[in-house]
Design goal:
By secondary structure, the protein is of the alpha/beta class. It contains 22 helices and 19 strands. Helix 20 (566-575) links the parallel strand 18 and strand 19.
Length: 620
């Protein structure tokens, strides 16, 4: 389609673009660090977007029909903050606090500002998350808001970008518009493709996108591209804009060596004079969205969790699927996604019952987590599942999710040597450590299906990054269906006044510990057995009491490497308090496993009942 521009409109775009450049220089020079040149290249693109196309109510950042603007190139935060100033959302005094201690204007955007949906700055993440937001808009909210994602050309080398392109094309997210600021220069020189905009366009088209190549400093082309993107149906749009880094200042424009460097104080006036600084202190109105509401969802009701009879056997991964289905029935805000293993994680139970709320991500674990983060932006309750080992591919998204203050639930199945014959490539042996290290995370490892079901229900109510590790093998049902389990709790499964040692286990190793208990009991050796199903936060009170009452001797046993898992979680309880340190023996997987039966591998790893008995005897 074609549009016409009036001279006043062009002048308004020009005024805003120059103001954005001026402010990007001013705030970074004051800060003494930052990325002014990466901000200046996209200023014309953002000026047209902000004045003519963005629909956002800055007085109501939670308006459900607001557009979403995500800076995937998060280092261009000075440009984003300058836009907020131009819109009147922040003032100039706050803009000048960029990168200062205590400021909301951090070096890369975070939700410390209410207008920022997610933290970016680790490149390759904004577009994948934008895809998740766009999926929510199209399939759940059923609202016409647009998701605008500003990309840098350096991050187009990230595999996560192309996972996102693939899923956006597959799900036909036509309200997703990616704006590629192709300024040719990365951190150390020219980017992989330089100004080869045709190559980017061909790649986007191969993934089912509508692609538009433009001069990113030509207002007419920018305006036409946005109008065309808004008219495109059935597929997302990528606008590939050829731009110049440092545009508008002669000693910065298209010059190498300026990435991530502010204009020195003694050169600031020279730069600002080229941008006609005196005329650049205006406020520009942003159009508000239509007052539309998301598709209605029935009020939540009580969750009717599955029940498993004591004495029977079931895998905790099956309990995860059953409980997830029960949550979905109780609350329409619960959504699920999986990495093409839902018949193993049992997320298929949810998918069969609620196909309209299940989003297959195929073998794309980065996009799996990104989709969950995007959907929680829209206040849904996402559960994402795959084999525990494969969350390691998405770890950067998980740690950035914590910075985003994201509320997502992750379930990793098939963990540890107990999965058996598949061998070490499928055995998560570092996942507990990995997830414990995430800021504010919760890490759960149930041993029993009734326990697992209760904890899945708890996950839905819990904030932050919540991870549940499930077991492949069927194990005996230990707890009655009405037994209660809470985050931060544990269960003392066996105890007596004669206990001489405490064994702390979780998941599959609890069953080994109970076998060891029976052997030890037959030899008149009394051991306390603790089911530490909440690995983080761990039940400090119960562990401290056990140490005091049971000889100050502890054996921890886990289907995990010795570093960072359950054993370290228990040991840390005692390093954070006064008093004598108990004797702690950590049983964990010490050597690289191979293939075998679960029983063979537990024995070989030194975490079977046999080895627990030996460790207890040696300790007492």
């Amino acid at each position: 389609m074609t549009t016409t521009q009036t001279q006043p409109q062009i002048q308004q775009w020009t005024n805003l673009a120059q103001q954005l450049r001026v402010d990007s220089i001013r705030c970074t020079t004051t800060a003494g660090s930052g990325h002014p040149t990466s901000s200046m290249s996209a200023a014309d693109l953002m000026a047209v977007l902000m004045i003519s196309y963005l629909r956002y109510d800055f007085d109501n950042p939670k308006h459900p029909n607001n557009d979403h603007l995500i800076f995937s190139k998060g280092h261009a935060a000075p440009l984003l903050y300058s836009m907020y100033k131009a819109a009147g959302a922040i003032d100039d005094a706050e803009l000048m606090t960029l990168r200062k201690f205590g400021s909301r204007l951090e070096g890369h955007p975070t939700p410390a500002l209410p207008y920022v949906d997610v933290a970016t700055g680790s490149l390759g993440q904004g577009l994948p998350i934008g895809v998740g937001v766009a999926m929510a808009g199209k399939y759940l909210d059923k609202l016409p808001y647009h998701v605008w994602v500003v990309l840098g050309d350096s991050e187009m080398a990230e595999g996560s970008i192309w996972e996102a392109c693939d899923k956006a094309g597959f799900y036909k997210t036509d309200h997703l518009i990616a704006i590629l600021d192709c300024n040719r220069l990365g951190q150390r020189g020219e980017t992989e493709l330089g100004w080869n905009t045709a190559a980017y366009a061909a790649r986007a088209q191969a993934f089912g996108w509508h692609a538009i190549e433009i001069d990113g400093h030509d207002y007419e082309q920018i305006n036409q591209a946005y109008a065309e993107a808004l008219q495109t149906e059935g597929r997302p749009t990528m606008i590939i804009a050829k731009t110049k880094k440092g545009k508008g200042v002669s000693f910065l424009e298209n010059k190498e060596g300026w990435h991530g460097k502010p204009v020195p104080k003694d050169k600031e006036d020279e730069a600002l004079q080229e941008l006609h600084r005196p005329a650049r202190s205006m406020t520009f109105s942003v159009q508000k969205p239509e007052n539309l509401q998301p598709a209605s969802i029935p009020p939540a009701k009580a969750v009717d969790l599955p029940r498993y009879e004591v004495g029977s056997s079931e895998a905790t991964r099956k309990a995860y699927g059953d409980a997830l289905k029960a949550l979905g029935d109780a609350d329409g805000h619960v959504v699920a996604m999986d990495g093409e293993v839902s018949n193993s994680t049992y997320a298929q139970e949810f998918a069969k019952a609620f196909p309209e709320r299940f989003f297959e991500q195929f073998i794309a674990e980065q996009q799996l987590v990104a989709t969950a983060i995007g959907m929680q932006v829209r206040h849904y309750i996402p559960f994402a599942s795959t084999f525990a080992a494969f969350f390691s591919r998405a770890y950067d998204f998980i740690r950035m999710g914590a910075i985003s203050r994201a509320n997502i639930r992750l379930c990793g199945s098939h963990a540890g040597v107990s999965i058996g014959e598949d061998g070490p490539s499928q055995m998560a042996l570092e996942d507990l450590a990995m997830m414990r290290a995430v800021f504010g995370s919760t890490v759960l490892y149930p041993s029993d299906p009734n326990q697992a079901a209760q904890l899945v229900a708890e996950m839905a109510k819990h904030d932050g990054i919540v991870y549940l590790r499930s077991t492949r093998e069927k194990t005996p049902v230990l707890y009655a269906p009405d037994e209660k389990f809470t985050v931060g709790g544990s269960k003392v499964v066996k105890q007596s006044a004669q206990d001489k040692v405490t064994v702390v286990a979780a998941g599959i190793t609890l069953h080994e510990a109970l076998k060891a208990y029976e052997q030890l009991k037959g030899e008149n050796i009394h051991a306390r057995i603790i089911d530490a199903y909440s690995v983080k936060p761990i039940d400090e009170e119960t562990i401290l009491a056990a140490a005091e009452e049971a000889g100050n001797k502890i054996v921890t046993v886990e289907d995990h490497w010795p570093e960072g898992g359950l054993g370290d979680a228990v040991t840390e309880v005692f390093t954070q308090r006064d008093g004598p340190m108990p004797q702690v023996v950590k049983l964990a997987v010490q050597s690289m496993p191979g293939s075998g039966t679960p029983a063979e591998l537990l024995e070989e790893a030194g975490i079977s009942a046999h080895h627990i008995v030996q460790a207890v005897k040696a300790l007492i």
